[in-house]
Design goal:
The chain is mainly beta. The protein has two helices and six strands.
């Protein structure tokens, strides 16, 4: 016993173009939150304690070329993008890294000022 089925193909273009919508960026479901040290209005400086989870790696983000670190801040894992020209942060981190891994090292990050006059500092705890 044979059963015939009729399959209708509406428009060949419509059928062939299903893949056009699959060039969009993937959803950012499993990404860590970004470590930010924004100042509230009237606040001139801020200090935060962090722990390094990895030794960092080069990357390019919406911020441009940077060094990307996974850190723990306020009992939450986060990602920290440091622009490759932020020497006040990267020089001390690099000096510490040259002695060995920085995984597990604790540090205090300080931000003073807003916009163009912002100054950054990092101090490792021994």
């Amino acid at each position: 016993m044979e059963i015939e089925k009729i399959i209708e193909v509406k428009d060949a273009e419509e059928t062939d173009s299903w893949f056009d919508k699959y060039d969009k960026p993937q959803e950012k479901k499993n990404l860590l939150p970004i470590f930010e040290m924004k100042l509230v209005p009237g606040q001139l400086s801020r200090k935060e304690e962090i722990i390094f989870i990895d030794d960092g790696h080069n990357g390019t983000t919406k911020f441009g070329k940077c060094i990307i670190f996974n850190i723990r801040h306020a009992n939450q894992d986060k990602v920290w993008f440091i622009k490759e020209n932020q020497y006040s942060l990267l020089n001390p981190i690099a000096a510490k890294r040259k002695k060995g891994t920085i995984v597990g090292d604790q540090a205090t990050v300080e931000r003073v000022g807003t916009k163009a006059e912002t100054r950054w500092a990092i101090t490792f705890k021994e």
